Amino acid sequence: MELGGCSSSSSSSSLCLQQLTALLRTEKNSCCVSTRDWSISSKKRATTLSSISTRTFSVSYRKFVDFALDETTSHTHLFSSPLQEKYNSLEPKDGKGEISIQSFEAAEIRLLRSLIIETETMQVLDFTVFPRAEYDVPIFCANFFTTARTNIVVLDLNPLHDVINQRHYKEKYFKSLIPLGLKYAELFPWGGKLTSESIKFFSPIVIWTKFNSSAEKYEILYSAFKDYYKVWLELVSKAVKETDESQISRNLEAQHRYLVWRAEKDPGQGVLKKLIGETLAKVDQI
């Protein structure tokens, strides 16, 4: 999303993209994660971080990630991504708050990656799921930034291909989802003007909103996250695996364009620099 005020240089991007790019280039080579194993690890995380989550915030995005992983493991087998251990122990340079990164793959999923940042003044969730290139399914994206007063939210099934000019793709994946988008459009205010560059990366059902923090809005957002993610999993489960090499290449190129856009427009780089330092927050351009 493009909120203004935070963009990377032509030679660098955020840590989020560092993980995404490296992981998307790595083949699946690790063990399967069962639902039971994930449940146990979730409980450990909740115990370890409960003091931070409750000290200044009445809400946490950890249950969003837990829900998504539980739902995913009910559809497919998840595998830990190769860089999981490398980033699992990442900590803010000032020693305040927590950074949690989870990275997985599956037969149909090229990368499932979540990044949660929790400090005394804010919470950030960056949750993205890429289908494998054999599927032209949209990219699931949840980018949430929360302080005690304000929330900035983008929740979407980012289209892999142009929904403005490619009517077939739009109808294939989004025609039946319009009622879902309208449901939450009535519950969340529109977040404001988007640039023409950003619009092409968003779907007709995008939730782009800003609102004051409240328990009620948090629960509505959680409901939206669950609905959107369940719909995304259904799209993946029904998708026909592509065998045409030229179409697979088009899908790969589309994912690459999305990553470049995120790298250049990611508004979280300033936050990451402050938390973990400029060196870790930078990588070479894709």
UniProtKB/TrEMBL annotation:
It comes from the Eukaryota. Keywords: Oxidoreductase. Pfam families: Fe_bilin_red (PF05996). The keyword Oxidoreductase applies. One of its GO terms (molecular function) is phytochromobilin:ferredoxin oxidoreductase activity. One of its GO terms (biological process) is phytochromobilin biosynthetic process. InterPro entries: Ferredoxin-dep_bilin_Rdtase (IPR009249). Belongs to the HY2 family. This is Phytochromobilin:ferredoxin oxidoreductase, chloroplastic isoform X2. It comes from Arachis duranensis (Wild peanut). The lineage of its organism: Eukaryota, Viridiplantae, Streptophyta, Embryophyta, Tracheophyta.
